[in-house]
Amino acid sequence: MSRFFPFLFLLFITACSQQCENSFKNMSAEKVKAHYIANLHKLDSALAELEAAVKNNHDEKTIHEKFFKSRLSYKKVEYLAEFYNPVTAENMNGAAIPKVEEDDPNQVTIEPTGFQVIEELLFPQFLKESEAKALILISGLRSDTRRLRKMVADQQVSDAHVFAALKSEIVRVIALGLVGFDSPVAFYSISEARSAIGTIDEVLNFYRDDNSFKNEFSAIKKLAAQTNDFLLKNNDFDSFDRITFISEYANPLSVSLTKLQTLLKIEPSGSLKPVSAHAETIFARDAFKPEYFAPSYAQDISPQKIELGKLLFFDPVLSGNGQRACASCHKPELAFTDGRAKSIGFNFKNDVPRNAPTVINAGLQRSTFYDLRTSFLEDQATAVLNNVDEMHSSLDKAVSELSESNEYSALFKKAFGGNAVNERNIRTALAAYVRSLTSMNSRFDKFMRGEKSALSASEKNGFNVFMGKAKCGTCHFMPLFNGTVPPDFTETEFEIIGVPAHPVGFKNNKLDGDQGRFNVHKMQLHKAAFKTPTLRNIILTAPYMHNGIFKTLEDVIEFYDLGGGAGIGLDVPNQTLPSDKLNLSESEKSNIIAFLKTLTDTADISAKPERLPLLKGVRFLKRKIGGEY
Amino acid sequence: MRKSTHFKNAALVGSTILLGIAGCEENDVTLPGQTDVILKNHSVTPALVKNVMPGLEVYSLMGSDDTFEQSPNFIFGGSADGAGLLKNSDGTYSFLVNHEDNFSVSRVTLDKTFKPVKGEYILNSDGGMYRLCSATMATPAEHGFGPTFITCGESGPDSEIHAVDPVSKNSQILKAFGRWSTENAVPLPKSAYSDKTVVIIGDDDSGEHGGQVAMYVGNSGDLNNGNLYVLARTNDNIKERDMVAGQSYAVEFRQIPNQKSLAPTEFNTKSTELKSIQFGRVEDIDYRKNAGQRGRELYFTVTGQNNTQANADYSRTKYGRVYRLVLDAKNPLKGTLEVILDGDDRSGIAGKFQNPDNIMVATNYVYIQEDPNGYGDETHDAYIYQYDIASKQMKVVMELDHKRGDAKYNVGGDSKFGTWEYGALIDVSAETSSANTFMLAVQPHSWRGDKYKNPDSGSKRPDENQASQILMLKGLPK
Predict the structure, then answer these.
(1) pTM for the full predicted model
(2) I want to staple A249 with a disulfide (CB 3.0 to 4.6 A). Which of A180, A227, A552, B14 is the partner?
(3) Would residue B3 count as lying in a domain?
(4) Range of B359's domain?
(5) How many domains does chain B have?
C-alpha cells in the first residue's frame, strides 16, 4: 500500500487544482445536512418533553414553555424542511384550516394537523378535555420529524439548494412569521424569527474558510448579530417596527447572502421560478418572473407579442358587435378597472355578476378570475371572449376578422412567425400584454430598495399595523399584496370573509349570494370563497370586493375591524377570517389607508395605443380605441 | 388515486425461503395439480357489486366487519387499494394491501383453503406517510428481484415510493424513482429486457405541469442507481388531446439527470423543460401477459380532470382515456403510443367512461375500473369494463352496489352516483392453482363507523373511519 502512496498523493494535488473548490463546497453541504439532522433530533427531544408535560399533567406554564421550546426548535429546521419536504412541513406548521380535495366526490374534510392546531388547544388556556387530541397531534409531529430525517437521509443536499432555502427563510420570516401567520394565538413570532435568523448564521459557518472572503463573512456575521439584537430588544408583537426590521436588517441580510453565493461561485439551480434566484431581495425591481405563471408554450414573452397583445386589448374587433374591448371595463386611467360596482354587460342593460379587477400584476397569480377557475391568462381570455355578457364573441370569429387585415396579419407574423393568425396566438398575445403590466415601482417598493425618504412616518406606521395588529398581511401577502403565497409564490389562495349583500351599514345586512369558488367544484367547504385580490393600486380601483359593495377604503377597514361577515352577525359557514374584533384605533385605520396609498404604480404601463390597425369592413371604420362603454 | 397490481408466478415465500419458479417468465399457465383452495363467502358482508356479467362467480372473502381467528383484535381497514399475494412455503398465503386513506398497509394470512385467518398492519400511518394508492408485488420469478411490495405515495410533491419487504416489514424509500404524486410504479417482467430492470411510474397530477409517465431504468434488480426519464412525443407536442384514437405516435423517454439531487418541485419543472406529455392525471399501469411482446406492451389509464383551471383549454382528457404503449424490443426509451379508449368521445365505445382508474391487463382482455371525479353528470355507479384487445369491443363486467336505503353503507344519507370506487384487481390463478381466479378490492366510501376508526393505531390518520372489502372473482376470461 505504501508503494502507491506518492502516486496517489500527486494525483490528488492535480485533481485539486481543478476541483478543490467544488469538493470544499460539497463538504459544506454535507455539513449542513448533518447539522439539519442533528437539529431534527433536537426537535424530537423538545416535542418529547412537550408530550411528557401534557401527559403528566404539568401546569399550564410548563406546557407553554415546552411548546415555546418546540417552536424555536422547529424554526431551526424549517428552511430545509420546507425546501425538501413542503407537504410534511405543511402538515407540521400549516394553517389550522380544514381542507377538501376538489376531485373527491365524497368531499371528505381533511382536518388540519401540527403546531397551529396544538396551539389552539394549549392557548390561551389548556383544558383537560383537549389532552387526548393534543397528545395525538404531538405524536403526529414527532412522526413527521422522523419522516423528515428518513427522507433527507438519501437526499443529495446541494449548495445551491442550501442558499435558495436560506433566502426563502428570510422571506418566510418577514412575510409570514412576523405577520403572526404561524403563531396566531401565542404570538411567539419575534422569538421565532430570532431562531430562524440564528440558524442562517450557523449554516453560513459551514461555508466559511479562513482564506477567502474574510471581510464578507465578517460583515454578514456582524449583520446577523445586529439582527438578533434588534429582535431581542423589540419583542412586542403589536408595536414591532416591521418596516425598519425589513429594510435595515432582513433585506441587507438577503443582499449579503446573494453576494456571498456569487463570490462562492454557487450557481443557482436553473429551473424557472416565480422569483429570480439572482434577485437580491423580493423587492428588487425585476425580482418577479411573470413567465413562470404562463403555460409552457407561452413562456417566451417577446416585445412583439406584447405590442400585438396591447392592440388586441384595446381593439373592439374582439367583441361580437365590434364595440366592446377588453379596455372597456379595464381602463388604464383607473388602474385597468372601470370604477363601477359591477361592469356593464354586453347588452348595456344588465350588469355582469362581479366587479372588474385590476389587471396590473394579474400575471403574478397561479389562478385567474375571482373563483380561480382558470390557471392561465390565456384561458381567461378565451372565457371572457366567449361570455355572452362580456365580449359575446369567439376566438373563431376573431381569427376570421383579424386574418382579413393585412396590417394585423403582418403583426402576427412578426410576433409568431409564419401563418400566424390563429386562436392560440390571439390568446397568447393578449396574455403576453397582461403579463407586461407587471410593475414593482411604487413608493413602497422604492423605500424597500433603499429610498428612505419615499415613505412618511404615518405611512410606515400604517405598514406596521397592516403587517401586525390588523393581520392584513396574513392573506394579502407581501410584496404582491395578493393571495400568492410567500416565500415560493407558486400558489394563490382564496378566503371566505363573508362579504355582505348591502352597502348600507353593518346592521341587518345579509350575506352576498355569490357562491364563488363553490361554483367550480361544488365543494361545500368552499362556499362563498373568493381569490384574495391584490391591494396594489387600491386607491384607483374602488369600489371594493367581488360585488363592489364598499365604496371607500374606510368602509373596507371598518368591515375587517369588526371581524368580517361573521363579526357583523352574518351566518358565514367556514369563514377563514377570524371573527374577533381587531380593535384598531382611528389613527391606526388612517395610517393603514395612508400606507395603501403608497402602493400606487401605474405610470409606466398605462399608455394606450395611438391608433389601431386597419380592418376590412365598414363597421370597423369608426371603432374606438378601448371600445364603447 | 387508488389502484391495483399484478404479478404472477409468485415466489413461494416462507420467512426467507424463496422457491422461484424458474423459466416461467411469461407464462400465466395455471399450475397443474391439486389445489386446496375452496372459493366461498368467508365474509359476513355481502359482495357490494351488482349487474355481474353472466358466468362470473363472485365471493365475498373479507371485509372490515370480519374477525380473524388468530388475530381477534384486527380490524381490516378502509379504502383497500393496491394489493399483492404471495404463496408461503407452508401452503398458506400472505395478502398485502394498501389502505389508501389510512396511509397504511395490512398483511392478511389465508390458510391453505384460502380462508383469512390472521391480519396485522405492516406499515401504519406513521410508516406509510402518504396516501398509498396502487402497488405492485415484485417477485424474483416474474421481475428478477424481490419479493418486494412497491407502494407509492400520492400526497403532492413530498411523495416518494416505498419498497416494503413483505416478510420482515422493513421499508425503504426508492429515491432514484423520483418524486411524483405517484399512483403506481410497475416493474416490467424480467423477460422484457434481459439485463435491465425497467419500472414505469404514473404521476396522478392535475396541476399546471400535468401528470407524467416516468420510467426508471437500472441494471437488473437494481432499484437505487439507475436513471429516471419522462415520456415525450418525438415532435415535442405536450398536449394530450392532440393525440386521437386510431393513430400511432412516436414517443421517447427523456432523462431527468441527477434525480437524487433534485428538490421535489423540480421534477415537474424539469419535465416541462423536456417537453413531456402533460396528461390529465396518470393512474394505473399494467403490461400484457403471455403475448408476443414479452411484457413490453403496456396499457395505462389517464383518469381525467375537469376542464377548468390548468385544463381550462381542455387540452387534457376530462372523462378519461386508456393508452397502449409499446416499447422497442432493444431500447426501452423508445416506443409508440396509441389512444385505445377515449372517454371524451361521448358517442364512442368508451362514451360512458366516468374516470377510469385501476387497470389489469391479461392476455386477450384489458380490465378497467372506474373512480368517478364527481362532475355531477354521473349516470351509473363505478363499472369494471372488459376491453377485448383483438376485436376492440368493450362490455361492462359489473357495477358497484351502494345498497342505497341501507344506512349501514350510506352513512350521512344515500350516497351519490359514483362516490364509491374499486381498488386492485389482481390475477391469483397461479398462486391458488385455480383457473381464472382474481382478487378485487372495493372501496365503499360511505361505509363508515367508529369501530373502523384508525385500525392501524398510527398517529397520522386518527379520524379515518372507513370500511372496505375484498372479493374473489372466478371465471373472468384472460
Answers:
(1) 0.92
(2) A227
(3) no
(4) 25-474
(5) 1
